[in-house]
Structures are given as C-alpha cells and as structure tokens.
Specification:
Blueprint: H1 11-32, H2 34-65, H3 75-92, E1 168-178, H4 188-200, E2 211-213, E3 218-220, E4 224-229, H5 232-236, E5 248-257, E6 262-271, E7 273-278, E8 281-285, E9 298-300, E10 316-318, E11 322-324, E12 330-338, E13 343-352, E14 397-398
Antiparallel strand pairs: 1-2, 1-3, 1-5, 4-13, 5-12, 5-14, 6-10, 6-11, 6-13, 7-8, 7-12, 9-10
Length: 406
C-alpha cells in the first residue's frame, strides 16, 4: 500500500478531531461517574449557602462595632436637661410641703404669726401650779375643774397627779359607801369613831378597806388649804360625781428629812380632821374634835374663822417637840377629812426651837408652812381665807415616790 506524501495530510481535520474528543471525554466521564457529579453539586450548594450566611450575620455586627455614639450636647443644653430631671424628681417625692411660718408683709424683715387669743379670767387665781418649784399659782377659772391637775397644768390644793421630785402621796376614801358603791349607813358619830380607831390602832389602811377608795392618787408638797367648800376634796381626786362632800378622809404619806438638825414642833388646825404622825409617833392633833392622841404644847389664836364667822374651837395647836437630824429620813403621815360637809380647811405649819418669829396682832408667832418645795401662795377667791404665815421658811426634803399602780 502506498503512503501519501506528507504535504497531502489534512492537518485541520486532525486538530478538529482532537478538540472535539477532549470535551466529549470529560462530560462523558462526569456522566459515567454519578458519585463525582453529585459531590461537586453538593459542594457548590454548600459554598453558596455559606457565603449567604456570612453576608447576613457577620456583616451587620461588624458595622455596629464602628457605629459612632450620639452627639454630645453643649454645656447649656446639659444644664437645662438636669434642671428638668430634678423638677420631675421633686414632683414625685411623697414628703409633704413645708408650710410657711414667716409673714413678710410687716414692717420688719421677719414678722412672727400673731398669738391666739387667750380666754379672759373672771376671778382671781386660787390654785397652785409648779409644785416642786417656785411660782405657785393658777387661774381661778380652773379651780375645781376635774382633769386640770396633770401634765404641768394647774393643780388643786390637794395635790398633783404626777409625783415630781419628792412629795406626799395622797389617798382618798369615802366612808359613806362601800367599794361597790353600796351605802354603809355612815353618820358623824361612826365617822369620828373610825378616825379615832385608825389613829390609835397603828394607822393601818385595813381600817378603810371596806369603804370606797378613789382610784386617783395625788402628790402634794404641803398640807395648807384655805377655808373652802368641802366638795373641793372629792373634785380634786376626780370623784365628785360619785362622792358627796361629807364624811370623807384623805391620807398623805412620805419620807421627809429636815433642812437642819434641831428640835421642831408641828403646828396646825383642821376642819374637821388634821392629825400628824411622825416617825411612828403622833405629834399633832389639830382636829375640830380632838381624838385624844397627842399632847399639846401650846395654842395659838390667829382669829381664824370660817365664812360664817365661826372660830375653830381649839385654835391652832402646837404639838410636842420632835428632835431630828439633817440627812436622816423619817416616815410622816397626815390625815385630813371632812365630817358634816359645808366648809373645810387643813393647815400645817412648822416651828423650830430657838428661832424668833414675827408675831401677829393676837401675839401668836407667824410661822412658815411645813413644805417640801418652794413656792408662793396664790390669791384667794371670795370667802376663802388662810391663817397668817411666813412666806419664807425652811424647806424639808422628801424621797421620791414611785407612782401608784392604776
């Protein structure tokens, strides 16, 4: 067989044949290898999904990282905003607004509010205030009014509802009725017998246990009442609505110490009962009808009469001598009371041996009040009177008393 010459071979046909054979071979291989084809498709889809995820998630966060802050306001804007916030805060606070106490309409720069109008008094003062200190005195318009004797207010001549620094403790009994307010058929004769038995039988409260006892205890620094209506006693102890002003007793107890060592005499009188026991001994019986329980050193006539002009029968009685030592404390008890009703008084003075006293018109010494605190006597109402007394005198001390249990 003969071979054609080289120049006669068709080179273009050979190249086209080689070119068409290569792609046909690749696609043929892909079609023939199903696993390879599927793998390529899956990787393309996975790559496309990953690209979309990166664009949606990471790109926005990266933008926020470089986000600039809000513009800063200038100083005047910040000041205004702070004032607005403070105003809102104050408006929501619950504290009440403070009321204005200064009036600026007067001539002065600061003018205080006007004081409230005070009630007018239609009578002279007769009550004592400030027991335990100077300045005893209170408006008469409050005299005899219950509920006006505590908390620093005016007090009656019978005492105060508060103890103070040292005083007598006073207890009140009504002998006309029992503790259950039943009648005891009391009369003046029985009343006198009960008082005598009490002062002679050791001053034991059990003698009064069957009688009505006022729940209120009063504390007094002196026993010195003017001639007054007998209903002042029950009123002072806050039982005027339950106790008629007769056949009643009041007992005052305390521990006292003299201002100076020496010999003293208790001097006094009472309408109807005034008896004093000191250190276990009865040292004065100045009752209208004496109970025969004390010796009498002297009698003083002060011309003292009640509103009806009746003079006290035994005048003022001076009891036996009592020797005491300063700094020592002694038990002391004072019994006062009203028998028939009407008018009442009980006044206790003190006299010391070796002291010269001024004398009144009847020649009797003007003595100081036996007292446990300094103070001035108030003015008296019409019809009330006191015996002459020295405004200055010794002040005895008293142990503080614990308030009585209600």
């Amino acid at each position: 067989m003969a071979i054609p010459p080289a120049e006669e071979i068709d080179t273009d046909a050979i190249a086209a044949t080689e070119t068409s054979a290569a792609p046909n071979s690749l696609w043929s291989r892909l079609r023939n290898s199903r696993f390879l084809f599927i793998s390529i498709i899956v990787h393309l889809l996975f790559g496309l999904g990953a690209a979309i995820y990166v664009v949606q998630v990471y790109s926005p966060q990266r933008k926020l990282t470089f986000k600039g802050g809000p513009p800063s306001p200038n100083r005047s804007e910040r000041t205004l905003e702070h004032k607005v916030q403070m105003a809102k805060k104050q408006s929501t606070m619950s504290a009440p607004a403070i009321s204005k106490r200064i009036i600026t309409t007067g001539i002065a720069k600061v003018t205080l509010p006007a004081l409230p109008a005070m009630p007018q008094m239609n009578a002279a003062p007769t009550k004592m205030a400030g027991v335990g200190g100077a300045g005893i005195g209170a408006p008469a318009s409050l005299s005899g009014t219950e509920g006006s004797q505590g908390g620093g207010g005016p007090i009656s001549f019978f005492g105060l509802r508060e103890t103070g620094s040292g005083s007598f403790a006073g207890t009140f009994w009504d002998l006309k009725q029992s503790q259950t307010h039943r009648s005891t058929d009391m009369n003046e004769q029985k009343y006198g017998d009960i008082v005598t038995d009490f002062v002679k039988g050791g001053w034991n409260d059990s003698a009064f246990q069957k009688f009505y006892k006022a729940p209120q205890t009063l504390y007094n620094t002196q026993i010195f009442t003017p001639y007054m209506q007998a209903d002042e006693g029950p009123r002072a102890f806050h039982v005027s609505g339950e106790v008629k002003p007769r056949l009643w007793l009041a007992l005052y107890r305390g521990k006292v110490s003299p201002p100076e060592t020496g010999t003293y005499h208790f001097v006094g009188a009472g309408d109807d009962v005034l008896v004093v026991r000191f250190n276990g001994q009865i040292v004065l019986d100045g009752s209208w009808n004496p109970h025969g329980v004390s010796s009498i050193a002297a009698k003083y006539d002060y011309g003292f009469t009640n509103a009806k002009g009746l003079s006290i029968p035994n005048k003022f009685v001076k009891g036996p001598a009592v020797s005491v030592t300063a700094g020592n404390y002694y038990d002391m008890e004072v019994l006062i009371g009203e028998q028939p009703g009407g008018e009442f008084f009980a006044d206790l003075l003190i006299e010391k041996d070796g002291v010269t006293y001024e004398k009144e018109s009847h020649g009797s010494p003007i003595l100081p009040i036996f007292r446990l605190a300094e103070g001035k006597m108030p003015a008296l109402r019409s019809g009330e009177k006191l015996p002459p007394f020295a405004p200055k005198g010794p002040i005895w001390r008293a142990e503080a008393i614990k308030p009585a249990k209600p």
